[in-house]
Amino acid sequence: MDERVVVIGAGPAGLAAAWAIRRAGLDPLVVERSGAVAASWRGRHDQLRLNTHRMFSHQPGVRIPRRCGPFPARDDYVAYLERYAAGMRIRFGAAVRRLDRADPGWALDLGGARISTGQVVVATGPDAEPVMPAWPGMAGFPGTLIHAGQFRSTAQMAGRDVLVVGPGNSGVDLLNHLVRADAGRLWLSARSGMNIAPQRLGGVPMHPVAVAGARLPRRAQDASLRAVQRLAFGDLARYGYPRSELGAFTRLAADGITVAVDNGFARALKAGRVAMKPAVESISGPTVRFTDGTACAPDVVICATGYRPSLGPLAGHLVALDEHGMPPFTGPSSSPSCPGLWFFGMDRSIYGNMHIHRRQARQLAQLIAR
């Protein structure tokens, strides 16, 4: 057997798992398909910041420096993860194509190379594969049509009319930046209702306040966030932003959709800088048509339509993935039918992914060390 433990993925979750496993007395090998840690973060737009507070977004064992501010910028966070990974055994440029059983452990197919291991932690993230819609006529759109994960800079949108599709966290985050840029007309298309929370209220960051109520019953958390929404924004439905029928925490538990975080979007919506539209029905040349019969002709369409974990080729033959591509067990949970196989960092939390992954990483490491 080549290794005792292999971690697949050198993003925040994979590095957290590797750190905790090292602390438990083992020395895992981390395999990463790209050439550096935090590849997903490096590829996002240059205005990106954490929308969870620095105090609750750090890796286990090492806090994010205060100089990075309450909501660290992309480059600061990447530099932090680079320092965090120093000393870990990481094999870059190693794309794992498939996992298979190899008595008494697991075999990793790297396409021309093979690694055998007693235990394997799949930490490739819930956002490995962008989900694109399939609108009639979209192939003939003459403008720019991209997924939100391909967006790089607000400077590229100067003077251009932009339609953002998807009122969730990614779509609202893009508009938080676009409303302060030199973009032309802005539209937001919403197929269904969504919960939205202010990043700050009265100048006070709301994330630490929300974490303080994490032990409350789910219904109480839903009611608390509804109250914060009303206080911060009033009734955004008056401006076309549809309200979710489910509270934020109930909806996260039901379908994995988290809350959108406002940092300028809501004010721009009320001022008419952003115009709401219903779901896209079709595209005809440069014209995007909506389900209410209206239309617009944007220069750019950005699809903030979510991601999937892309586990099918890797492990779909080993476990039954759900309709969202998620495995049946995650974090420090495992299956008796797959001893030594772990999926880590796939779940989401309104309180921030790393806030829950710190605790889960230590639990995972203890189970692996046994």
| Fold-level CATH name of the largest domain | FAD/NAD(P)-binding domain
Give the end-to-end Cα distance, rounded to a whole number of Å.
Answer: 18 Å
Oligomer: single chain
**Global mean pLDDT:** 94
Coarse morphology: globular
Largest beta-sheet characterization: 7 strands, mixed
Give the full name of the CATH homologous superfamily of the largest domain: FAD/NAD(P)-binding domain
Number of helices: 10
When the domains are counted, the total is: 2
Helix percentage range:
25-40%
Q: What's the CATH C level of the largest domain?
A: Alpha Beta
Which CATH architecture of the largest domain?
Answer: 3-Layer(bba) Sandwich
Radius of gyration: 21 Å
Strand content: 15-25%
Uncertain stretches of 5 or more adjacent residues: none
Which structural class matches the secondary elements? alpha/beta
Counting DSSP E segments of at least 2 residues, the number of strands comes to 21
Quick overview:
This protein has 370 residues and is an alpha/beta fold.
Q: Which descriptors would you attach to this protein?
A:
FAD/NAD(P)-binding domain, alpha/beta, 370 residues, globular
Descriptive account of the structure:
The protein has 370 residues and is of the alpha/beta class. The chain has 2 domains: 3-128 and 307-369, 3-Layer(bba) Sandwich (FAD/NAD(P)-binding domain); 132-303, FAD/NAD(P)-binding domain (3-Layer(bba) Sandwich), CATH 3.50.50.60. It has 10 helices and 21 strands. Strands 1, 2, 3, 4, 5, 6 and 21 form a 7-stranded mixed β-sheet that branches. A 5-stranded parallel β-sheet has the order 8-19-9-10-15. A hairpin with a 2-residue loop joins strand 12 and strand 13. Helix 1 (12-23) packs parallel to helix 10. The longest helix is centred in the C-terminal third of the chain and has 17 residues, at 353-369. It is globular, with a radius of gyration of 21 Å. The mean pLDDT is 94.
